[in-house]
């Protein structure tokens, strides 16, 4: 199982100035940073526990009730209600106080916190995180906070978070952890296919995607999210062709002999996700592969049947880092 890389992404200052950080005791500066992400990262629970990653749940309103993503309702319960009602959930960013609470919790295990956010171009979540960062010097004195834009969502964001967490577990200094996360943000790709455009049409939440709707609600689009950019890359007419195109597009984006890190994601499409995972395992050299569910926050906007692949190709440098991290765990 291998680890993470890097890229250009938004990064913000934190609760302690750079000068104050450099003057901190050497023992404090050598400790790993704690890692925080939003529930949109869709990381498996065992990875969250293994690396001590703190999650900020995204609140959403479904009907007349407010839920915290990943806390108050299971994906199965959510999709059952979604199909029964057809209502699209309404989301709102966590308050700055919720980010501060997560950072305070994370800072109990390290003097620094790196918060990996969902792509700022498709969500306003980072605005709350930036407001929280402005309040951090007063409310979290002595805690150094950095914010890294993952330039992605789902397990695209998850792999950026995981790269940071693995670097921290390997004892990397804070600046190197941030650099690793930023480089990963530029490398990881995410492609998805929607089984129906009905739910997205109700929200027109992503202009680049909404532009393809018109009268084409019967198509199965393939959409790519990478480097903070979202755009349709293919349109097919059947579910089978959509799944085939999803896998073919992934393979076309990486070197033929590359060792891959892959996450298969789904919204109430477990059997198809399992088939995709088995097919990828049988035809690709995988350093690691996971199957996870999209959170209700994401699946609610795109509808049941959403399938996705988040992936990146391994390089020699990160393989060395992962081996070092393994030796420490």
SSE string: EHHEHEEEHEHEHEHHEHHEEHEHEHEH
Q: What's the CATH architecture name of the largest domain?
A: 3-Layer(aba) Sandwich
What is the typical, i.e. mean, pLDDT? 82
Helix content: 40-55%
| Continuous helix count | 14
**What would the CATH topology of the largest domain be?**
Rossmann fold
**Structural class by sheet pairing and helices:** alpha/beta
> From the alpha-carbon coordinates, what is the Rg to the nearest angstrom?
19 Å
Give the CATH level 1 class of the largest domain.
Alpha Beta
Count of strand segments: 14
Q: What is the domain tally? A: 2
In which order are the strands of the major sheet placed?
11-10-9-14-12-13
The biggest sheet amounts to: 6 strands, mixed
Q: Describe the oligomeric state of these chains in a short phrase.
A: single chain
List the uncertain runs: 1-31
Report the span from N to C terminus: 13 Å
Residue share in β-strands: 15-25%
Q: Label the overall shape.
A: globular
